[in-house]
Amino acid sequence: MTNRESLTLYPSPWYNLKQFSSYDRRSDSTGGRGWFANSDYTWFTGVDSSSGRKEYILFDTDGPGAIVRWWMTFAGEGSYDGIVRVYIDDDKTPVIEDNILKVLSGQLLAGEPLSSSVAPETGFHQRGHNLYLPIPFKKHCRITYDCDAIVISGNTRKPSIYYDICYRQYEKNASVISFSQDELINASAIIKRTTELLLKSDDKLAGRKNKIHKLSGIISSGDSTKVNIRSSNSSITRIRLLLDADNPEQALRSTVLCMNFDGKRTVWVPAGDFFGTAYKRTSLTTWYSMVENGIKMESSWLMPFRRSASLSLINYGNQDIEIECNIEVSKYRWNKRSMYFGAAWHEYHQIMTAGAESTGGTGRHHDISFIDIKGKGVYAGDAVTVFNTVDAWWGEGDEKIFVDGESFPSCIGTGTEDYYGYAWCRPEIFSHPFIAQPIGNGNFHPGTTINMRYRTLDAIPFKSSISSNIELWHWLPAVINYALTTYWYVFKPYEINVHPDKNGVKIPVPADPVSDQ
Question: Quick check: 381 and 288 in contact, CB under 8 A?
Answer without folding.
Answer: yes
